Amino acid sequence: xxxxxxxxxxxxxxxxxxxxxxxxxxxxxxxxxxxxxxxxxxxxxxxxxxxxxxxxxxxxxxxxxxxxxxxxxxxxxxxxxxxxxxxxxxxxxxxxxxxxxxxxxxxxxxxxxxxxxxxxxxxxxxxxxxxxxxxxxxxxxxxxxxxxxxxxxxxxxxxxxxxxxxxxxxxxxxxxxxxxxxxxxxxxxxxxxxxxxxxxxxxxxxxxxxxxxxxxxxxxxxxxxxxxxxxxxxxxxxxxxxxxxxx
Length: 247
Description:
The protein is mostly helical and 247 residues long.
């Protein structure tokens, strides 16, 4: 059954695909992943209709999770997003967090997240809501990915915390994750940190500013330039970074 229902969804997505959109997104992502050419709102609409018409809502939730995970393992971006949307809309609140985390770790191990768009989509649609639902235990497990071998899993150890930066009780754990990751020069690790710090600054500017100042030596110029631009001390941080980088 999973193969048949997945094929059905893929046919539905192809029916609303646009070649120009496909080409634009593939060029934007530097051809690291294939697109069908379906806008995200259409993917969401198609998934909802497909679930109802194929009777997936009548399956055990464990079986529904297997279908969603299989979609995320597919090659096309829209298939992956369809799986993420399915978990977000229908499973995050009902399937044990442990089961979703196990599936997530298996997907990372198999290389299902091969670029920032799919990695961040999963972080924001699945992992962030999972932290909000599951609390500290889930947060600690995700934070533990900061030493994973896979680049996107390491990015996934910090980006989901964008969902809970307004809650100060998560700040010590966020700081632990950043203290490890910030030593990497890899751009996608640095910008993952940048997004979290930038979001934190909107609700806890002093905490975010302290984090930036503490790790200024290791944060990239791009992070200081782009992700601290709304900080009260943005210009001071930029000046300090420029002085660091002068020969």
